[in-house]
Amino acid sequence: MKAKQSLGARLAEGVSGGLLRVFLIVVGLFWLVPTIGLLLSSLRSPEDIAASGWWKVFTEPSQITFDSYAKLLENDDITSSLLNTVWITVPATLLVVIIGSLAGYAFAWMEFPGRDWWFLGVVGLLVVPVQVALIPIAEFFGNIGIFGTVLGVVLFHVGFGLPFAVFLLRNFFAEIPRELLEAARLDGAGELRLFFRVVMPLGGPAIAALGIFQFLWVWNDLLVALIFSDSGSQPITVALQTQVRQFGNNIDVLAPGAFISMVIPLAVFFAFQRQFVSGVMAGAVK
Fold first, then answer.
1. CA angle, corner 210, sides to 237 and 284, nearest 5?
2. Quick one: which of 129, 119, 157 has its CA closest to 141?
3. How open is the CA angle 56-62-63, to the nearest 5 degrees?
4. pLDDT digit string (tens) for 115-138?
5. Distance between CA atoms of 57 and 54, rounded to whole angstroms?
6. Cα dihedral sign for 157, 163, 168, 172?
7. Residue 4 DSSP one-character state
8. Least confident stretch, 111-115, 174-178, 181-185, 245-249
């Protein structure tokens, strides 16, 4: 005879089934509404946007046009800023991942004087707000001649991305079984070979999660780019903000530019979401 379930158990069983699935689908649709609205707005003319809301497309599909994207490609400020965003985001992400991986391995498995104190210093840098360093670093970059350049923006993002990278990867690498590393050393593997042949493949999920975090942070950044870039090195976020300030009704450029700026990091996230989830869950289950 089947034991009688409590009310809480029956509710939990019901929620874990189709009801929860429907709820998650509804939440996901609500979450996508701004993205869908921005996409449809970018496919409408400025006159249609001024006359009605983006949902009007569902009753009048003839409003859809790609003229706004054609105008966007003719806007040198937007196209050059989009290229600058790539030149800023890709190096800043790769440098943080590479340097953070090497440092994380060193702090986890290499013996050197003051290792624990150095690591505590790195952890302490996590609590330093970005705003505190803006003026001093801006003055320093001005003195060495890289203020207002792509290099200056990249170096700032690398400097503030490394503490979290080292902290994350050091803790992940420390969970690798010591016996595995000792076996590789007995086979004659040096530290670099050990790092690239053993540690890096095992740390793939955590490294992928770090890369996604860093990519999204740098791509969507406005504050740092607004201060450290000029008209020739500004990324897409600053370019769109400038368009709003100078041309408040320039919606035919703003809408497609904002959608492209948003859809690229979304595509990166969904492309690596499996590695991202594996990296976030790493160490939760042994």
1. 135
2. 157
3. 55
4. 889 988 888 888 888 888 898 999
5. 6
6. positive
7. P
8. 245-249
